[in-house]
Design goal:
Distance between the termini: 101 Å
Strand order of the largest sheet: 1-2-3
Order of helices and strands: HHHHHHHHEEEHHHH
Oligomer: single chain
Structural class: mainly alpha
Strand content: under 5%
Number of strands: 3
Radius of gyration: 37 Å
Largest sheet: 3 strands, antiparallel
């Protein structure tokens, strides 16, 4: 095979993934008078389209198409420059035929396979294609990893929300009698809980995380999920008393164990103070509600 034919064969095998046998048959057919370049080009493009269609991600498709297009345009440009072909409308199979015709002109000397592989044009093109493939692989890997991370988080959050509502309902929260409003109130709690990340422990409980690290209190103890739900809910909701207090003496005794806020502003500050335990804040709420009755 002559040097220019090898160059053109490299174009077809590298960019369009045409086999060596198919290239040899194509070049042999190109010598005939009835050679239909457009039909051959359509066949190659259709075959290449089927190969591209087997790729499984949009990221891979986009990267591969872009890399192939840029490499093909660059190769065509360099081939025209190398062989003094000024007509830029000649592309694909027509460009191969034009260069092949030059190869058959008197005085043209053929090149060996090794000569072609050592040429700066061949080396440059091969490197560009290798770099394109590496870039595509990186993009595909990143896209797959991102999709897996998103899927796993959404699946975990679904379980987290279900458990959070279970804990929340057990607190006997005061909700609107309007079902739509009540649903929106619950969503406020769930939306705030989405600000954390979660891992599922072997016992099915949830490990609360923030910025990739397990969340712990000032003493280094891991934050309990149920307690997180209760603390978060206590900043947005009041809770119904589980048992009504039946006597004034009980009411006074209850108040005596805590300090009941005197104003609405003081009450809000105390209720939102996370340094005060949930049990104490709940007791303050009950006492406040009794005081306002």
């Amino acid at each position: 095979m002559k040097g220019i034919s090898l160059l053109l064969a490299g174009l077809l095998t590298t960019v369009y993934k045409v086999s060596d046998d198919e290239v040899a048959a194509l070049l042999e057919k190109a010598d005939g008078e009835d050679f239909d370049a457009q039909a051959e080009l359509a066949t190659i493009l259709e075959k290449d389209k089927g190969r591209i269609g087997t790729l499984k991600t949009d990221a891979f498709n986009d990267g591969h198409k872009k890399g192939k297009s840029e490499s093909l345009k660059d190769l065509e440009k360099q081939v025209r420059t190398e062989f003094n072909l000024s007509d830029e409308s000649i592309k694909g199979i027509d460009l191969i035929k034009a260069v092949h015709a030059l190869d058959r002109e008197a005085g043209k000397n053929g090149l060996t396979d090794d000569d072609i592989k050592k040429s700066p044009l061949y080396i440059q093109l091969q490197k560009k294609l290798d770099d394109t493939n590496k870039d595509v692989e990186t993009k595909v890997s990143s896209a797959v990893k991102e999709a897996e991370t998103k899927f796993n988080r959404e699946r975990t959050l679904s379980s987290v929300k279900a458990k959070a509502l279970e804990v929340f309902e057990a607190l006997n929260p005061v909700l609107s009698e309007n079902k739509t409003v009540a649903a929106n109130q619950k969503n406020t709690l769930l939306k705030e809980l989405e600000g954390y990340d979660y891992d599922t422990a072997e016992d099915g409980s949830f490990i609360v995380k923030k910025e990739g690290k397990a969340l712990a209190d000032a003493h280094g103890n891991l934050v309990d999920f149920d307690q997180l739900v209760k603390n978060t809910a206590s900043t947005h909701f009041d809770f119904k008393q589980s048992k009504p207090r039946g006597s004034e003496s009980n009411k006074n005794e209850f108040k005596g164990s805590i300090t009941v806020p005197k104003t609405e502003e003081e009450y809000r500050k105390v209720i939102n103070n996370r340094d005060i335990s949930l049990e104490e804040r709940t007791a303050i709420k009950e006492a406040w509600q009794q005081q306002q009755a």
